[in-house]
Specification:
Blueprint: H1 7-16, H2 22-31, H3 36-41, H4 44-47, H5 55-62, H6 70-80, E1 83-86, E2 105-109, E3 118-122, H7 129-144, E4 148-151, H8 157-167, E5 171-175, H9 189-198, E6 200-203, H10 213-225, E7 229-232, H11 240-251, E8 254-257, H12 268-275, E9 279-280, H13 284-291, H14 307-311, H15 317-324, E10 331-332, H16 334-341, H17 345-357, E11 361-363, E12 369-371
Length: 373
């Protein structure tokens, strides 16, 4: 057995070699007694006796030092304050271990140890204002109830979900399709920093790894694998969120989809998921009902941040302004609400949709709105 590498160093090398995926690596570990150092100590004939291992992989393992600079990688870990978690670490996401191809290691920036059940919120990068508002609201409500909101730090729905969780002081984790040192999109640098301060930013990939089509798909399997459920807020039928939903089906996770307008391309994927059996999501209560947590297993809710939030029933300023218009049983159309609230039409429409999702107002057949009784 090789004495040149520690166990963690051996995991780092195995994780970084491009020709060896997690399935093959885990098979090698199983065949060779579980110690990653034994893989590097084994000869080519022993390695190639393992299913899926041929001359290319055995040569890659034998010449690993010419392909991967371990010293530089360890220096980057120290400089960035990141850690490398293996499947044997207590802080490795527990549900992620259960999928058929779990990453053998995760780079983690931030101290969050995944104590809370995870719910993924994913969707289109080209999200509508309505979609962003729904994702932000769901992120806040789930995080406020003690869940960790998981997403991919992308533009649109991902960003809104992370921001919603952070707005209530809850936990959120971002899974990247790049190395931890390559932040994409670049405008999310501040969000990256805020998440790493109280939650975690994760990546399967070594420092310097740039994004490609394969890396994003690999990222999506982690998002699904570490969560109890996946919520798709907006997605076209060929969007990346649909890949995450497909992984969720393979992993046996619950799948939720938020309905949208029938003429909106960014809702076609959600409507297809609903047709295919995903649960139509109208509120956080739908998730709680499906997960069916026992009282003793419910995550502890995050304490309310201010007395004002509790006094208004959790409504933000825009929602409170619109909802106040319905006091006394008023039935109001869009034009009247625009006049009363002085809100732009797009903002008013998104706010009304959120009030409908919260079951506070209802849209009548004539197009007017009224408060639920």
């Amino acid at each position: 057995m090789s004495t040149e590498l520690t166990e963690r160093q051996a995991f780092l090398v195995l994780n970084a070699l491009p020709n060896i995926g997690p399935i093959t690596t885990n098979r090698l570990l199983e065949e060779l007694g579980g110690d990653p150092r034994a893989i590097f100590a084994a000869g080519a004939s022993r390695l190639e006796a393992v299913k899926g291992v041929g001359p290319v992989i055995s040569r890659s393992l034998g010449d690993w030092s010419t392909q991967f600079d371990l010293g530089r990688e360890e220096k980057k870990l120290a400089e960035t304050g990141a850690t490398f978690l293996t499947t044997r670490d207590e802080n490795y996401p527990k549900l992620l271990r259960q999928i058929h191809d779990p990453p053998i290691g995760l780079y983690r920036k931030g101290g969050y140890a995944f104590e809370h059940p995870g719910i993924a919120i994913v969707g289109s990068r080209r999200a509508t204002l309505y979609g962003q508002a729904v994702a932000r609201k769901l992120g806040a409500e789930l995080a406020g109830r003690g869940f960790c909101v998981v997403s991919g730090l992308a533009r649109g729905i991902d960003t809104a979900a992370h921001e919603g969780a952070l707005s209530v002081g809850g936990k959120t984790a971002a899974v990247l399709g790049t190395g931890l040192d390559l932040i994409y999109p670049p405008e999310n640098l501040d969000l990256y920093r805020r998440i790493s301060e109280t939650g975690a930013v994760l990546s399967e990939f070594p420092f310097g790894r740039r994004a490609d089509r394969q890396s994003f798909a690999m990222r999506n399997r982690i998002v699904s694998g570490m969560c109890e459920a996946v919520v798709v807020v907006e997605s076209d039928v060929d969007g990346g969120a649909m890949i995450t939903a497909r992984f969720a089906g393979e992993h046996g996770r619950l799948i939720f989809a938020v309905p949208g307008r029938i003429d909106q391309p960014s809702s076609r994927g959600c409507h297809q998921l609903i047709r295919d059996g995903a649960t139509l999501l109208t509120s956080v209560d739908d998730i709680l009902a499906e997960l069916n947590y026992l009282d003793g297993l419910r995550p502890a809710p995050v304490a309310a941040r201010t007395a004002d939030t509790a006094a208004t029933g959790g409504l933000d300023e825009a929602e409170q302004r619109v909802f106040e218009c319905f006091r006394g049983g008023s039935i109001l159309n869009i034009d009247t609400l625009e006049s009363l609230t002085q809100m732009p039409a797009h903002e008013l429409g998104a706010t009304l949709m959120l009030l409908e999702l919260k079951r506070l107002v209802v849209k009548r057949l004539d197009g007017a709105f009224e408060a639920r009784t």
